[in-house]
């Protein structure tokens, strides 16, 4: 946030912002999706009241989201083993999950992969929950540290919570393959560990259905767990605070109890969720034409991320930059990529070339456009030669 502010204050015309976690087009904008505009027009036409929505959210929204995540033919849904509440964005969902863990899993540890999305530790830690790290990603090779991950998770005790990113791991962009997901799921089940899947980028890695496959695999094996979904990115609904916390339970009575308990938490924290974003998502997901158009817009975003990664790779390679600096740039997925740039090099990029990125070298891929990519590649090449 501080870097973003510093970027805004910088008068240089050639400045480039690779910090923000917001999808941008090749024109450098973050427009409202067309399908969202269409849904909003429908909603405006029929809106008759602004009364509170139910504490746990509106049923149509929650039903649509559950079938998006678990699949229309999900046996878990048929058995009513899933209970969900609308949360104010993914962050709100993580907070609600944290409250639930603090209340019902006393003494348990939350395990967070390294490198981490910092807010996981921020949210769970602030609730007094003990957090531990497990090795996840090797920056030098651009790949997941499978052996080390399983070795570290061997230390977890039954009932501990393991945080996994549903897809497009933030910040690395490295996701387990299908076989690793299965192995992880079996591992969690055998050791009685509880998965908490944070799904902030559904559709950005390999497509909507493919990406949902990971959490479906986990819950083929694990009887219980939590899923936090955000629609900030794939619906571009950042400021509408639209997310869902879902509980997967062993039976329908447990699912109802989890929702009831969380309803009490919601009452204490913010009483009832915002309506607009959830109604947009429900309108789009429940109308086959709008839903198809949404999946096409998500696919266009995904393709832009893939092609930008490729273009950056080509721009750097043509300047003889050793691509070891950017492990997995073209094979990893999602909005973010980690570079091996040192903090000093990151500072030099900012101070001398007005290119902003996080101190850990993370860049936001869609902060690059076809007009800035060569300039960024030039600057990186120069800083590396320095
Ligand atoms: C892994 C992860 N979880 C949760 C969130 C929060 O999502 P939201 O903006 O909907 O609160 C983000 C956003 O960047 C994220 O990257």
| Structure class | alpha/beta
With strands numbered from the N-terminus, the spatial order across the biggest sheet is: 2-10-9-8-7-3-4
Q: Report the mean per-residue pLDDT as an integer.
A: 97
Radius of gyration: 21 Å
Sheet having the most strands? 7 strands, mixed
Give the distinct bound molecules: pyridoxal-5'-phosphate
Helix content percent band: 40-55%
Fraction in beta strands: 5-15%
Give the H and E element order.
HEHHHEHEHEEEHEHEHEEHHHEHEEH
Structure description:
- There is one protein chain.
- With 386 residues, the protein is α/β, with parallel strands linked by helices.
- Helices cover 47% and strands 14% of the residues.
- The chain has 14 helices and 13 strands.
- The protein has helices spanning 2-9, 34-46, 59-70, 75-78, 89-104, 118-126, 146-153, 178-190, 208-221, 252-269, 276-286, 288-317, 343-353, 373-385, and strands spanning 16-17, 82-87, 109-114, 130-135, 137-138, 143-144, 161-165, 194-199, 225-230, 243-248, 336-338, 355-356, 362-364.
- Strands 2-10-9-8-7-3-4 form a seven-stranded mixed β-sheet, sandwiched between helices. A two-stranded parallel sheet has the order 1-12.
- The two termini are 29 Å apart.
- The relative contact order is 0.17.
- Bound molecules: pyridoxal-5'-phosphate.
């Amino acid at each position: 946030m501080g870097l973003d502010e510093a970027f805004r204050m910088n008068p240089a015309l050639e400045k480039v912002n690779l910090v923000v976690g917001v999808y941008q087009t090749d024109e450098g904008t973050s427009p409202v999706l067309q399908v969202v505009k269409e849904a909003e027009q429908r909603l405006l036409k029929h809106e008759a009241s602004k009364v509170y929505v139910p504490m746990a959210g509106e049923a149509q929204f929650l039903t649509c989201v559950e079938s998006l995540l678990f699949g229309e033919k999900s046996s878990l849904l048929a058995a009513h083993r899933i209970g969900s509440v609308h949360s104010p964005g993914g962050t709100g969902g993580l907070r609600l999950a944290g409250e639930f863990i603090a209340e019902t899993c006393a003494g348990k540890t939350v395990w967070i992969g390294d490198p981490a999305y910092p807010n996981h530790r921020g949210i769970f830690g602030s609730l007094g929950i003990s957090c531990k790290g497990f090795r996840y990603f090797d920056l030098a090779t651009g790949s997941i540290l499978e052996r080390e991950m399983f070795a570290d998770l061997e230390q977890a005790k039954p009932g501990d919570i393991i945080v996994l990113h549903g897809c497009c791991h933030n910040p690395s962009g490295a996701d387990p393959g299908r076989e690793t997901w299965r192995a992880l799921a079996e591992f969690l089940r055998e050791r009685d560990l509880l998965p908490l899947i944070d799904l902030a980028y559904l559709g950005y890695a390999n497509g909507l259905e493919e990406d949902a496959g990971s959490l479906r695999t986990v819950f083929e094996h694990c009887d219980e767990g939590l899923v936090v979904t955000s629609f900030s990115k794939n619906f571009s609904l950042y400021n509408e605070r639209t997310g869902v916390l879902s509980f997967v339970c062993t039976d329908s009575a447990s699912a109802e109890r989890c929702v009831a308990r969380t309803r009490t938490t919601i009452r204490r924290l913010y009483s009832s969720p915002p309506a607009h974003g959830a109604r947009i998502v429900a309108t789009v997901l429940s109308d086959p034409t709008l839903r198809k158009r949404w999946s096409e817009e998500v696919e266009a975003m995904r393709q832009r991320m893939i092609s930008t990664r490729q273009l950056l790779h080509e721009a750097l390679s043509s300047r003889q930059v050793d691509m070891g600096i950017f492990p997995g740039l073209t094979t990893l997925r999602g909005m973010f990529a980690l570079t091996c740039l040192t903090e000093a090099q990151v500072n030099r990029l900012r101070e001398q070339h007005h290119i902003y990125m996080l101190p850990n070298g993370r860049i936001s891929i869609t902060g690059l456009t076809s007009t800035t990519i060569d300039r960024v590649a030039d600057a990186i090449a120069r800083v590396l030669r320095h």
